[in-house]
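Appendix C reproduces, verbatim, an entry submitted by the partner laboratory led by Prof. M.T., so that reviewers can inspect both the input and the predicted structure.
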Amino acid sequence: MKLSQFKFKLPEDRIALHPAKYRDESRLMVLHKKTGEIEHKVFKDVLDYFDDKDVFIFNDTKVFPARLYGNKEKTGARIEVFLLRELNQELRLWDVLVDPARKIRIGNKLYFGDDDSMVAEVIDNTTSRGRTLRFLYDGPHEEFKKALYALGETPLPHSIVNRPVEPEDEDRFQSIFAKHEGAVTAPTAGLHFSRELMKRMEIKGIDFAFITMHAGLGNFRDIDVEDLTKHKMDSEQMTVSDEAVRIVNKAKDENRNICAVGTTVMRAIESTVSTDGHLKTFEGWTNKFIFPPYEFTVANSMISNFHMPLSTLLMIVAAFGGYDFVMDAYQVALKEEYRFGTYGDAMLILDK
């Protein structure tokens, strides 16, 4: 497959700038792979397609307030710092992106907060935009993290939600089951699940399995090669527990429906599969890149948002749903005025 095959015209006004009033009342497009049928529903109707002992796999990563604004020493220039990951607790080292990158050199100090209470020193240039910062803070690590996060804001992606951060974002850019901190962007498919919907799913007998994949900015990084086999994904940290493995493999052995909630879940479970198609316990990193054609082994249904043109996220969905079917469905979504992006509507693909 070529990059250009995932291009489509997306009017700017179709990108959702705000979430739906209620999590489970976004629109839901249902794709039936076997018949080619497309249905138009409300998200809470997802319940109608699953039965007792079916399994939903969720990503319980938690987004942290990764975007900070600081000032450069001497010049006072305003610098955006995007925290990517903590490299060393003891030394307070962080891998970050800075903007504008051209203004920052090794040895520069950055000051954060109204009273300049947090100071960081640039100690390494890792990429054209990336840097390693050492935060100069003497207190205990937990105290440092609390102070650092207090300076940050919800990291809405500029390319998707181009507006100021609002109070509702702190809650709505996080799934209700978010637990393990480490993501710099929300796994968007999980945002549609409300407590009420999950309670109704429980009552129906549907089982939940939770994996953790800390979604990184690589999900939104532009692909700069036409030949997709040459694209390299950023590595992301993930954990698949014994409990998740037990729940998923039992459902697989009993020929139940297994639904991957989002592209991060799909990448995670496909990163740790045994030769007989069962899920394996895993803790580590993955840079798995899925694009058509691809043979999936664990899930037989999938929930996803409507993604941007040329994105790796769209490629995973097209690999699962079938390239022609999914790209046609996206044209239907445009015609029917579905909302795209982080706060947009959802798609359910059924393969049974």
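The chain has a mean pLDDT of 92. Additional entries are available on request from the coordinating office.
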